[in-house]
Automatic annotation (TrEMBL), chain A:
Protein family according to the UniProt entry: Belongs to the activator 1 small subunits family.
Main location as per UniProt: nucleus
Protein name: AAA+ ATPase domain-containing protein
Pfam family, any one: DNA_pol3_delta2
Natural source organism: Dillenia turbinata
Matching Gene3D superfamilies: 1.10.8.60, 1.20.272.10, P-loop containing nucleotide triphosphate hydrolases (3.40.50.300)
InterPro entries per record: AAA+_ATPase (IPR003593), DNA_pol3_clamp-load_cplx_C (IPR008921), DNA_Rep/Repair_Clamp_Loader (IPR050238), P-loop_NTPase (IPR027417), RFC_lid (IPR047854)
GO cellular component: DNA replication factor C complex; nucleus
Lineage, broadest ranks: Eukaryota, Viridiplantae, Streptophyta, Embryophyta, Tracheophyta
Keyword Hydrolase found: no
Keywords assigned: ATP-binding, DNA replication, Nucleotide-binding, Nucleus
TrEMBL record, chain B:
Species the sequence originates in: Dillenia turbinata
TM helices/strands, residue ranges: none
Domain Replication factor C C-terminal: 214-298
One Gene Ontology cellular component: nucleus
Record's protein name: ATPase, AAA-type, core
Length: 354, 313
């Protein structure tokens, strides 16, 4: 088992990073009830871990017995019926799914399936816990329509159903939904906290940690705990015992992006642009999300640029990323950014050095 | 069905006024409607106004008062136009129901073809009147719901606090009114959230942490970084904001307040900065990346404050 899963805290008491949030959540569910919740925060900050621990707190061990189902639904949409397939993770008390997987048909999921689930209320002999929990992931990727239809559903079935929503950026969730939930912000752990967790894992695994090693892993992780633990484990596989100056392997694709960055800094010509296109395609084929490529590329370029150029380059990065979101083909916009950068940089070089 | 614990009901539902005359602050609307109810001669109605001002509440209250609890189930059909869209729904469901009343909410996205069909004896309410087709709007009596004033909010909230046994100091009360910006539903949701998390005595700091408003010092730090004219410093602050998980749209509106209120910035600079805010807001709505957009805003603000180069093309 990967360390990321092995050392995932199972209960709210064992959470090491967001203790205050965990304690608050615990208080929240002591009356065996909770409002709708919206968790938001950057990736690798522990949203999922907290949600799973919260469910366990509410329903006990029953929440752990999950089964994966691949269900098909027939949704009646006026003149035609639409078949929808979606993978759900469910236990007797909760259902977890990713409605944005359904793409542009996501609003049917929200309308039909959530309603259907919300109507089936679990019956408990003691008459307690008369509600089900629905965990929806990536609500920020839901379309506007789907979010609009979610809001009345939330109110209507609030007696029998609680929603736990999980997303990266709450700006993309409509105000109407945010105002119906208790918002829980999960910040990325600080480097000290990451170091603490890594040392904890090291102790459990019986590893010798040279001083400063955990701090270096944490520094490289960009404040993502998941990434820190993964690269920690990679280091363990690569070389053990650790040496204090052991290199921490960067992600392959990040190295590749920095190669692209130095390529375009070196030469600005159509020929070079053509080569870069090949490399960008390579990254896209390997399923690296285009906005991550763009952000990484910007970060690499910013390291090397003069202060006055930085403003302009970051402006264009934001501009092309927005275009990319509106458009369909990511490669066009990535390439446009590279071409734009080349022209700005060339102009700058000519102006300075003639 | 398992009996529901009283506490599990959201306060928004629990304290929803049951009668038209209990609806807060909408005096004109309430006066007209009470008259209407007495004569039981009732036109089609169109309710519009910002969220959390009592549209749904009023409609439900009218339906309840007109029909009473027994008839309510058979006489009222609640449609959520933003969920069952399409001309078919409106044609068939409403025709089936034509003899009785209809109330439907959240209409703003409906296509025009759908809208003009919606003429049976119905009672409709909408969030945004501007997106409705003219033929439909002209068939209804329109009621505008205005945002609630701070006093009304405070009195409603104090009432709930009394009922729930909460202790809210005056400072927290005014904080709550100001962060919810006239939206009573939001205020009540925050209040319930804070009550669940922090127990019966709630300070204004607790409310801020529940509401997702960004602490003043974080916003100030970013603004100071922009003033300094150092790009790398601003970049670091932006990274920090993203890692802390603060919503960028919220950040923009708080930065906006600082910029507009600042005395040492010229009008021209303010205009430049705010123009960028508007563009960025649209980009965020389109789903653009938060980090890049905030960085762009920071860089633009910095250029405006330090009188650097203007727009790029």
């Amino acid at each position: 088992m990967l360390w990321v899963d092995k050392y995932r805290p199972k209960t709210l008491d064992k959470v090491m990073v967001h203790e205050d949030v965990a304690q608050n959540l615990k208080k929240l569910v002591t009356e065996q009830d909770c409002p709708h919740l919206l968790f938001y925060g950057p990736s690798g900050s522990g949203k999922k871990t907290l949600i799973m621990a919260l469910l366990r707190q509410m329903f006990g061990a029953a929440a752990d017995k999950v089964k994966v189902e691949n269900k098909t639904w027939k949704v009646d949409a006026g003149s035609r019926t639409i078949d929808l397939e979606l993978t759900t993770l469910s236990s007797t008390h909760h259902v977890e799914m990713n409605p944005s997987d359904a793409g542009f048909q996501d609003r049917y999921i929200v309308q039909e399936i959530i309603k259907e689930m919300a109507k089936n209320r679990p019956i408990d002999t003691k008459g307690k816990k008369g509600f089900k929990v629905l965990v929806l992931n990536e609500v920020d990727k839901l379309s506007r329509e789907a979010q609009h239809s979610l809001r009345r559903t939330m109110e209507k079935y609030s007696a029998s159903c609680r929603l736990i929503l999980c997303c990266n950026s709450s700006s993309k969730v409509t105000e109407a939904i945010r105002s119906r939930c208790l918002n829980v912000r999960i910040n990325a752990p600080t480097e000290e906290q990451i170091v603490k967790v890594l040392e904890f894992i090291g102790k459990k695994e019986g590893l010798q940690l040279p001083p400063g090693f955990a701090a270096r892993v944490a520094e490289k992780s960009n404040r993502s705990l998941r990434r820190a633990i993964l690269s920690f484990e990679t280091c363990r596989v690569q070389q053990y015992p650790f040496t204090s100056n052991q290199a921490i392997p960067p992600m392959d694709w990040e190295e590749y992006v920095s190669v692209i960055a130095s390529d375009i800094m070196k030469e600005q010509s159509p020929k070079r642009l053509f080569q870069v296109r090949g490399k960008l395609y390579e990254l896209l084929i390997n399923c690296i999300p285009p906005e991550m490529i763009l952000k990484r590329l910007l970060a690499e370029l910013l390291k090397k640029l003069d202060a006055e150029l930085k403003h302009e380059v970051c402006h264009w990065a934001a501009y092309y990323e927005h275009r990319m979101r509106l458009g369909q083909k990511a490669i066009f916009h990535l390439e446009a950014f590279v071409a734009k950068f080349m022209s700005i940089y060339k102009e700058f070089l000519i102006a300075t050095f003639g | 069905m398992a009996p529901l614990l009283q506490s599990s009901q959201p306060w928004v539902e629990k304290y929803r006024p049951k009668r038209v005359k209990d609806v807060a602050h909408q005096d004109e609307v309430v006066r007209v409607l009470t008259n209407t109810l007495e004569t039981t001669n009732c036109p089609h109605m169109l309710f519009y106004g910002p969220p959390g001002t009592g549209k749904t509440t009023t409609a439900l209250a009218i339906a309840h008062q007109l029909f009473g609890p027994e008839l309510y189930k058979s006489r009222v059909l609640e449609l959520n136009a933003s969920d069952d869209r399409g001309i078919n729904v409106v044609r068939t469901k409403i025709k089936d129901f034509a003899a009785v009343a209809v109330s439907s909410s959240h209409h703003q996205g409906m296509r025009c073809g759908v809208q003009w069909k919606l003429t049976p004896r119905s009672r409709d309410f909408f969030s945004f009147v501007t997106t409705l087709a003219e033929p439909l709007a002209s068939r209804c009596a329109k009621f505008r719901f205005k945002p609630l004033s701070e006093e009304i909010m405070s009195s409603r909230i104090s009432h709930i606090c009394q009922e729930e046994g909460l202790n809210l100091d005056p400072e927290a009360l005014s904080t709550l009114s100001s962060i919810s910006q006239g939206d009573l539903r939001r205020a009540i949701t925050y209040l319930q959230g804070a009550a669940r998390l922090y127990g019966s005595s709630i300070s204004s700091k607790d409310l801020i942490s529940v509401s997702g408003v960004i602490p003043e010092e974080v916003v100030q730090a970013l603004f100071e970084a922009c003033k300094s004219g150092n790009f790398d410093l601003a970049n670091k602050e932006v990274n920090n904001v993203i890692a802390e998980g603060y919503p960028v749209s919220q950040m923009l509106s708080q930065l906006f307040e600082i910029v507009v209120g600042a005395d040492d910035i010229s009008d021209e600079q303010k205009a430049r900065i705010c123009k960028k805010f508007a563009v960025t807001d649209k980009c965020l709505v389109d789903g653009a990346d938060e980090y890049l957009q905030l960085l762009d805003v920071a860089s633009n603000t910095m250029r405006a404050l330090c009188n650097m180069a203007e727009e790029y093309s």
